Amino acid sequence: MAKKPLIAIHGGAGTMTQSLLSSSKETDYLTSLNAIVAAGQAILAKGGSALDAVTTAVCLLEDNPLFNAGKGAVFTHSGKNELDAAIMDGATLNAGAVAGVSHIRNPILAAKAVLNHGKQVFLIGKGAEAFAAANGIELVDSDYFFTQERYDQLQAALAIGQENVLDHDSQSLSLNHINSDPIDPKNKLGTVGAVALDAHGNLAAATSTGGLTNKVDGRVGDSPIIGAGCYANNNTVAVSATGTGEMFIRGVVAYDVSALVEYAGLSLEQAAHRVVMDKLPKINGRGGIIAIDHLGNIAMPFNTEGMYRGFGYVGDAPKVAIYKT
Ligand code: ASP
Question: 37, 261, 280, 291: which has the fewest Cβ within 10 Å?
Answer without folding.
Answer: 261
